[in-house]
Known about the structure:
Blueprint: H1 14-22, H2 26-40, H3 52-81, E1 85-89, E2 93-96, H4 99-105, H5 109-118, H6 123-127, E3 133-135, H7 139-153, E4 158-163, E5 171-174, E6 180-183, E7 196-207, E8 210-213, E9 221-224, E10 227-239, E11 246-256, H8 262-266, H9 270-282, H10 298-320, H11 329-332, E12 333-338, H12 345-356, H13 361-371, E13 372-375, E14 386-388, H14 389-395, H15 397-417, H16 422-428, E15 431-432, E16 438-440, H17 441-447, E17 451-454, H18 457-465, H19 469-475, E18 480-482, H20 489-495, H21 498-508, H22 512-515, H23 532-557, E19 566-571, H24 580-596, H25 599-603, E20 608-613, H26 621-638, E21 647-651, H27 657-663, E22 669-672, H28 684-690, E23 694-698, H29 701-710, E24 715-718, H30 722-734, H31 739-742, H32 744-754, H33 765-772, H34 779-798, H35 800-812, H36 819-831
Helix pairs in contact: 2-3, 2-5, 7-36, 12-13, 12-15, 14-15, 21-23, 24-26, 24-32
The chain binds 1-beta-D-glucopyranosyl-4-phenyl-1H-1,2,3-triazole.
Amino acid sequence: DEVTGKEKWPRGEEAVWKAGLRDVDAEEKTITNSIVNHVQTSLARQAYNLDNLGAYQAVALSVRDDLIINWNETQLTYSRKAPKRAYYLSLEFLMGRSLDNSILNLGLKDKYAGGVDKLGFNLEDLLDQERDAALGNGGLGRLAACLLDSSSTQELPVWGYGLRYKYGIFKQLISPEGQQLEAPDPWLDHQNPWELPRLDVIYDVRFYGEAKRSSDGSGRAEWSGGQEVVAQAYDVPIPGYHTKNTNNLRLWESKPKSGFDLNSFNAGNYEGAIESSNSAAAITSVLYPNDNTSFGKELRLKQQYFWTAASLADIMRRFKNQDKPISAFPEFIAVQLNDTHPTLAIPELMRILIDEEDQTWDKAWDIVTNTFFYTNHTVLPEALEKWPVPLLQHVLPRHMQIIFDINLFFMGQVEKKFPGDRERLARMSLIEEGSPQQVRMAHLACIGSRRVNGVAELHSDLVKTTILKDFVEFYGISRFGNVTNGITPRRWLDQCNPTLSALISSTLKIPKEVWLKDLPKLEGLLAHVDDPELAKTWAEIKQANKERLAHWVQVNLGLKINTNVMYDIQIKRLHEYKRQTLNILGVIHRYLQLKALTPEERKKTNRKAVFFAGKAAPGYYIAKLTIRLIVNVARIINADKDTNEFLSLYFLPDYSVSLAEVLIPSSDISQHISTAGTEASGTSNMKFCLNGGLLLGTVDGANIEIAEEVGESNVFFFGHLTPDVEDLRYQHQYHAIPIEEKCPALANVLNAVSGGLFGDGGVYEPLLNTIRQGDHYLLTDDFDSYIQALAMVDVAYLDQKEWIKKSIRTTAKMGKFSTDRAIQDYAQEYWNIESAKVE
Ligand code: KOT
């Protein structure tokens, strides 16, 4: 209850429940019966004496029953048809909530809403009880979740493999000073109805110990000793949209191999007894909270191996059930590596084939290099994984041997193709020299895979011309491709913006069941761009979505926000390359300008509210300082009576998939303003545009392809281009121009911050110094054109009629960016798999 903060329960009376169950239609009756049954049996609670959480759980269990039936039929179909299957290995799956998505995909939302209503509950309130499954950091993890949705929808035999972290991405709190604080995310504290524990699907995984090469010349080795840990499977059904196909996401949990050591326990050594059991459980205890940075920590290495070893053992067991010769492995199996995180799968499959399956090196390598595919998601040097040789040798001695052997063969081939080119050998080697030596995982992923792809056109070009240039020269260009990212329009339009979805269906005169599976059909909206009725309703929906967001902010943060202004949103992980700093400095610039105007002049300006949300990695000092600056600028300008009618600013804490679902449909303009060449793709840009929000961005990542689709007149571009970046950075190093000279507007803003306009300026010196010295992300180069672009946005927004047309045109041209298209690209151009419909 919004007013008292308490739920009203007991809810209704037994008689009402029973009456309610009588006058419902057949399908609704099945649903209410199933819910009541779960309340009374699975939850062991009284039917008419139940809070919203209990009701949510009962509804979820009822939906799960349907999913399990479809899941079973799907697996049966795949086994009978025995098609080639693909496995998507990702350390992150940022799933968000499942209930709403499941009933929409099953086509049962109206029935559930009706049934739940008969029992005295409101479905939307129940949906709100669910915790997000936040097993990811950002774009890479959410992409994995969208691709799974599309794999089921496209009826493709794909499984995901990941880790069942006990704690997902941390909960973000903001202190009174504006500092980010991190709290754990114990998302499994409520029972999780969306997973099925598989107590019988278990594998042993070894760490440490010794690897002894055999002396029989076979190339085999024996790996023994060390620590053994058990991997146990949990299955998460992934329903497709309006199809029975329900794929599987298999998540591994680590457990001690044999409980704790009873001998030491009996001898009184309690700590010793539980120590080894704790260290096993620790492997899947927590998601590493770094996005786009690699941290060479032993526990992270153990996560990577634990997960790849369990997944490959599971894949191998399923393959062997089919009684095919081992050489046929790549005809039945494709394994996609989501970034380099699962690259240990390459030496692990070599180990299985050589040490356990008696294959020769050449045969094993042939199987491996026809099985794996590698997607690169970043060219940022700090994100490219490198593991110290001594650490790998210690944790995975057999894999280190295999990696050295792969390198030896590979260096021989390079030497043959480019005789005497020692520098090339050093550049291409799997081993980077230094103390210590390090294994370059992107090189290993590249040479161990059939094909390699980037995630947007520009990014894929950069992969080919920078980090893997030598490999293009060695293998030829055809090994390297592009699959531009996408998003699932089910969650990111139909679920988060149901009124817009309904308007689109009625305008196109096509049922949503059709166009949501065939997104290019949106183009039909173009024929109606000049329809004033459509424009009016389109604008009303945007307005209602702003009010929904304002309501959310009121309820959750206790703030009242104006809904009659432009909503300008930047929501993503905090990172210097994403340049939230550019945005906040632009806000300060606008504030200073407003202050300098007369009240009459101010009234002619475009009014706006600026929103930020996003988490900073706990160890990323500059990113955290940026949050602190945003929060303190908000404090000052929201309290300034001269200007707050025209400009307000909000940092919404604890960004999540669920919060994104409220924010995205409300935006008029969203910002995607990375330094050119740094954002591989971005996917929230697609979500905003699909919901009719316009884009303000740099010429980077998927922004470029969005502009190609919607037309340059419907996006606001600014800033330097990728080919300029190297040179500009060089200028900063060797021919630095003082900021006052180069960019006086920016200098003025920096002085306002230093001077204490937003609290002690000294606090922000380290952040400001990243701009004054070096300015790696080119704020001094792009600030002026950024301010100009913002001014163009203001002018455009004041012409509401034209703005709405731009908005409709934008949605109309987003068809390319469905993950249905992306998953089909992977299926056809990479994995060579076909769909297998469940009848
Ligand atoms: C790298 C290391 C650790 C954790 C995450 C990464 C990472 C994330 N690398 N790239 N990404 C993002 O992936 C998205 C999906 O492809 C892209 O849209 C986005 O531009 C990348 O930054």
